[in-house]
Amino acid sequence: MRTIALDVPAWPGHRAGQHLDVRLTAEDGYSAERSYSIASAAGEPVAITVQRLDDGEVSPYLTDELRVGDELELRGPVGGYFVWEQADGGPLFLVGGGSGIVPLRSILRQRDRTGSDAAVRLLYSARTRSDLIYRDELARHRDGVEIIDTLTRERPDDGWTGYTRRVDRALLAETAWPAGKAGKQPLAFVCGPTSFVETVAAGLVALGYDPGRVKTERFGGTGGR
Amino acid sequence: MSPISRGFRRRHTVPEGAADRVPPGQYVTDGFPVLSAGPTPHTPLTEWTFSIRQGTGTLKSWTWQEFQELPAETVTADIHCVTRWSKLDTEWRGVAVSTLLDQVEHDAGYVMAFSDGGYTTNLPLADVTGGRAWVAYNYGGGPLASEHGGPARLLVPHLYFWKSAKWVRGLELMDKDQPGFWENYGYHMYGDPWREQRYQGD
To answer: Which domains does chain A have, with CATH numbers?
Structure first.
């Protein structure tokens, strides 16, 4: 994964959770365009974090070839549903799988920037410890924010304090804010591969979350045939 | 003029003979990605109904059993998602929307498809009639999976697939075009993949 900071003259501003589209054009005129979640909060310079997909059309170029000073064609910001602003309040349950952490990080940065006191729990699932990103930033203490990590393909034996299993209903029951009563329901943002999102969203609803307060964003995945 | 991306070149290839079936900016996938706004709803078939509504009234409604007894068609179509994947030769079975609308008297120009979970999407009447749209309950030879919109979803292959509302429960007849769920968030009111109408202003 690579975080790319962009200098965009006349950028109209963005909201935490939105994405932008990047278009690449080859010399023969062939072009490819893909969407990437914005990794920064509203008011911060635009940045995206790109995960390299081995069979990707655009991501390998952005992670391997792109250099400081290169020009990129962008469109955005796009989206308005998977967005959090201070007025939306909390408590927030942010659940990210793999690169799904990107828009959640922008939401967390938004909370920091606005001085919101919304309580946050961020559950971050990755395969191995080396797949976890934004480590230093997430490790910083913030009042009212709890970061919970889980690894699905590694069991470190050197002081690891996170979980070491897939996110399932039982893990959600241990980590999610309680569903609470109508009118005081937590707000959940779930992002990652499609099967991860399906499991988590269904799990939260089973725990009593109002489906209208479980926002989902699914990345890639082929969903079978 | 688009800037040239230094060193960038095509990696994906389009399946042979398929180039003219892939709208601009799309790539072909063998999979069937799932995207959604919110958790997958689950309505028991004993409670499922499909309704044609207008204003505050329901003009016509079918239970699941009644719906299964309607004449159905097998449809093979290419589908195109606004997130840029296209899937060719998808197979469906369902009831033509014309079959449903023919059973009510109306002069509406537009419909708003509405679904379990609150999703909506707007379409001109001309785009859901004349053999262009179905309410599909089978995919790939079997019952439509809930992740893909089962028990039934709208199927409108000539438009971006967000118009093919998953978990559809009916159509609201409208005189004027109104934005549905994604249209309210900046997506195009019509959504023609061949004109790349992804976002408002396209």
So the answer is: 2-78 (2.40.30.10), 86-219 (3.40.50.80)
Average pLDDT, chain B: 96
Strand blocks (E) in A79-213: 92-97, 120-126, 145-151, 187-193
Chain B CB contacts of A204 under 8 Å are 39
* pLDDT per position as a tens digit, B15-55: 888 889 999 999 999 889 898 899 999 999 999 999 999 99
Q: Do B32 and A57 touch (CB under 8 A)?
A: no
Instruction: Name all domains of chain B by residue range, CATH numbers in brackets.
Output: 43-195 (3.90.420.10)
The DSSP result for B66-95, as a single string, is HHHTS--EEEEEEEE-TTSEEEEEEEEEEE
**Could you tell me if B199 lies within 8 Å of chain A, comparing CB atoms?**
yes
Burial of B96 (C-beta count, 10 Å sphere; 0-12/13-18/19+) = buried
Listed residue (B142, B137, B115, B112) closest to B124, CA to CA: B112
The pLDDT tens digits of the residues spanning A21-65 come to 999 999 999 999 999 999 999 999 999 999 999 989 999 999 999
Residue A68 CB neighbours (<10 A): 6
Out of A81, A204, A220, name the one closest to residue B33 (CB): A220
Distance, CA of B173 to CA of A141 (rounded, Å): 53
CB contact under 8 A, B38 and A28: no
Q: What is the mean pLDDT of chain A?
A: 93
How far does B38 lie from chain A, in Å, by closest CA? 5
CA trace torsion A26, A52, A34, B164 (10° rounding): 140
Interface test with chain B among A4, A22, A31, by most B beta carbons within 10 Å: A31
Rounded to whole angstroms, how far apart are CA atoms B162 and B187?
10
Would you mind telling me the total number of residues written for chain B in this entry?
202
Task: Read off the pLDDT of residues A90-137 as tens digits, 9 standing for 90 and up.
Answer: 999 999 999 999 999 999 999 999 999 999 999 999 999 999 999 999
The predicted-structure confidence for A191-201, as pLDDT tens digits, reads as follows 999 999 999 99
Q: Are A148 and A172 in contact (CB under 8 A)?
A: no
Could you give the ipTM of this predicted complex?
0.92
- What is the Cα–Cα distance from A60 to B61, expressed in whole angstroms? 51
Q: Which of A36, A57, A169 to mutate to test the interface with B (most CBs of B within 10 A)?
A: A57
Whole-model pTM: value is 0.94
Whether residue A225 contacts residue A197, with contact meaning beta carbons closer than 8 Å, is answered with: no
